[in-house]
Amino acid sequence: MDRRYTPLSPTEQLQQRIALLERIRQQPDMPLAQVVRQLRTGLYLTVEEYARLTGVATRTIQGIEAGAANPSMNTVNKLLQPFGLRLGVVSVAVDGG
């Protein structure tokens, strides 16, 4: 956990994770870079901790968060899997005019 933050109790951690996942689920059109960053920072993880958790290189995570990387679907799913998420297709409303 990022040392800049005071550790939370297990109950507080669980509540925080549930709230974070709900915010992400409510915005299915959120860009991948924003999702990855919110997952990491919302749980107070450093890039290094997130890399260890997911098995994705630190440099790759930094590139994704900066919007400068084009990760494979496998890499994206590695980043999402620890949180019970996976990459998917979302229906988009088509503007008739």
UniProtKB/TrEMBL annotation:
SMART domains: HTH_XRE
Recorded GO MF terms: DNA binding
Pfam families: HTH_3
Domain HTH cro/C1-type: start-end pairs: 36-90
Gene3D superfamilies: lambda repressor-like DNA-binding domains
Database matches in SUPFAM superfamilies: lambda repressor-like DNA-binding domains
Protein name listed in UniProt: Helix-turn-helix domain protein
